[in-house]
Each structure stands twice: as C-alpha cells, then as structure tokens.
Design a protein that fits this description.
It comes from Streptomyces atrovirens. The protein is an alpha/beta fold. The strands form three sheets. The chain has a five-stranded parallel β-sheet with strand order 5-4-3-6-7, covered by helices on one side. A two-stranded antiparallel ribbon has the order 1-2. Helix 4 packs across helix 5, helix 5 packs across helix 8 and helix 7 packs antiparallel against helix 8. It is globular.
Length: 250
C-alpha cells in the first residue's frame, strides 16, 4: 500500500509543531488567520546555522500554504550577510532583520527557530539539530534535499556520497517532472494530497513528504499528469525547483 494511502485517514487540519521547551506539540497557528512571527536565531553562517534558516523557511512556507499570514525575521549578530547569501542560494526566501522587532503587530504567536544549545528565547522553540561534515562547493539544491531528507531533530552528516545521491535524485525527478508535464493534466488525488498534508502538518515532517513523492513516482495506478501536479504542489513547501526543466527537449 502506498505511503500516502496509509496516512489518508489521519490528515490534520492545522500545523502542529513540537515545542522544544516541553517536548509537547502545539498549534503553530492557534488563531485562525492570526499573524504568526517566525524568527530564526543564528550565530554564524556554517551549515548548522544554514539549517536553522532553512527550517524557518519551511515553517513559513507551511504556514502560508495553510492560509496563515507570516512575519519572517532573522536574528543573529555574526555573519548575517554571509548567511543570507548562502540561504538565497539554497532557495530560502528573504527574511527581515530581527532582534529589535518587539511585538507591535499583534501577532497571535511567535515561533523561535533555534539551534541546539543556542538561543533560548521565551515562547515556542523549534529546535534544529546540527549538521556535520563539509558542504562547501555543493550544489545548493542537492544540499537542501539532503537536509530535508532527515527530521530536523536528528543530526545530519553531509559529504560527497550523501550530496551525490541527493543530486542524482534531483536530476531524476526534474527530468521526470518535465516529461510528465507533456501529458494531459490531472488533479492531485485526494489521498495523495492528504498524505502530503499529514506529513508536513505533523511537526513539519519533510522526510515524510519525500516518502510520499517516492511512492507517487512509482505507483502504476497514477496518471502522469497527476504525478506532475503532485510534485509541483509539494514543491511549494520543499522549494527544490522541481519544475525547473519544463520545456526542455525530451
């Protein structure tokens, strides 16, 4: 049975995120349509701090997909310009400068994305485990996929083998998406959509989202047009530019 079919009955209606202070899940957006502030707390521009920024970016994307307005801030006193540049290469959308923002906009909740052992601000804390290894010179999209493939609470070790596998997967998926786009369009099946939402609304489980995509890739019961729409929909969260090769020669 495909992964998405197993999870259909458990689709959530709201994003739930684990608060590192208590270990308990909380509603990421407790007030319907209420403004949520997502603040990334960083201490440099190394891969671990880049992962903190990436998780904050994913949190913003997930909230916006649920119709929640978000105010995204970056707080850090070291190498902020370098981190912004690395984040942009990784597909992270711009964050405003934080630190002295206060709470003047009446946000319903503040979500603080922090590295383990780093900042400990008041409010909900979304903890991010460290990255080990060297990622210098890596294809940013491959690095993004490698980081998405593990739960944010687990350390990630990056190296040539891991990044090479991620690059191969990206190349295969982008070519497949470009090919599927040539077929008649079909809507994302309800069970598949529910599987994707169940994964990312359950503590931002990007590894689970990727698992759904792998199941969709090989499910003989799905039309290629539905595969295309599924990958394009999931990429609104993942930010892997999976539709990059649309219109390229077959």
């Amino acid at each position: 049975m495909p992964a998405y079919a197993r999870s259909r009955a458990y689709a959530r209606l709201v994003l739930r995120i684990t608060d590192a202070r208590t270990g308990e899940p909380v509603d990421a957006a407790p007030a319907r349509r209420g403004l949520i502030r997502v603040e990334a707390h960083t201490r440099g521009a190394d891969p671990t701090n880049l992962r903190v920024l990436l998780v904050a970016d994913l949190l913003v994307r997930a909230l916006e997909l649920g119709g929640t307005p978000v105010w995204a801030l970056l707080t850090g006193d070291r190498q902020r310009a370098e981190l912004r540049a690395a984040g942009a290469a990784l597909g992270v959308r711009p964050f405003e400068d934080g630190g002295d923002a206060g709470t003047g906009l009446g946000e319903a909740q503040v979500l603080h994305v922090v590295g383990e052992g780093g900042a400990a601000p008041d409010g909900v804390r979304v903890a991010v485990a460290p990255v080990h290894g060297e990622a210098g010179g890596a294809d940013p999209a491959a690095l993004r996929l490698a980081l998405l493939a593990r739960p944010r609470s687990e350390p990630v070790t990056v190296g040539p083998a891991v990044l090479g596998d991620a690059a191969d997967t990206l190349d295969r998926w982008r070519r497949a998406v470009a090919d599927w786009a040539r077929r008649p369009s079909r809507p994302v099946p309800d069970a598949v959509r529910a599987g994707l939402r169940t994964a990312w609304e359950d503590d931002l489980d990007t590894a689970g989202v990727l698992g759904v995509l792998r199941a969709v890739e090989t499910d003989p019961g799905l039309a290629d047009g539905a595969r295309f729409e599924t990958y394009a929909y999931a990429d609104r969260l993942l930010g892997l530019d999976l539709t990059r090769d649309l219109g390229s020669p077959a």
